[in-house]
């Protein structure tokens, strides 16, 4: 129930990137410093998740003893490591899939074309973002309409309004 901690975790990476970029610009540092800042931001994000988790465990579960050992976790949760492995494989492929097209463009047409393709891909993602957010928000409302028996004209009117807003 500590979603604010997740919110804090989500701002670590951008804040470290911002601070590092400002420092790199102030000292006229090169690309290596900029890339090192990105690496440092990723490491800070990872470390912050562990630290916030440990802090939350100690604050909200002070009775929690020392961390449990892996054999007892396996005994208490059969199939946990299989689930973790499959979840990580799924996350890896989900992260890799959008990059495969970019790698193919770079391989066939070169780095300049890959850069332009990447910019175009990001621009379309940004343009589509409001419609995606609206779709996620509208789904709950439209489901409520159907659950309450408001079909026909009220549902159609709500769908048309959502489509109109998304189109704008």
Number of strands: 0
Q: Estimate the mean pLDDT confidence.
A: 83
> In percent, how much strand structure appears in the residues?
under 5%
Please write the string of helix (H) and strand (E) elements: HHHHHH
Shape: extended
* Share of residues in helices: over 70%
The number of helical elements comes to: 6
Ends distance: 36 Å
Largest sheet: none
Please state the structural category.
mainly alpha
Task: Round the Cα radius of gyration to an integer and report it.
Answer: 23 Å
Low-confidence regions:
none
Description:
By secondary structure, this protein is an all-alpha fold. 85% of the residues lie in helices and 0% in strands. The chain has helices spanning 3-26, 31-60, 70-76, 80-109, 111-147, 153-167. The chain starts with a helix and ends with a helix.
What key attributes describe this structure?
mainly alpha, 6 helices, extended
Describe this structure in a few short sentences.
Helix content is 85%, strand content 0%.
Write the layout of secondary structure elements.
Layout: H1 3-26, H2 31-60, H3 70-76, H4 80-109, H5 111-147, H6 153-167
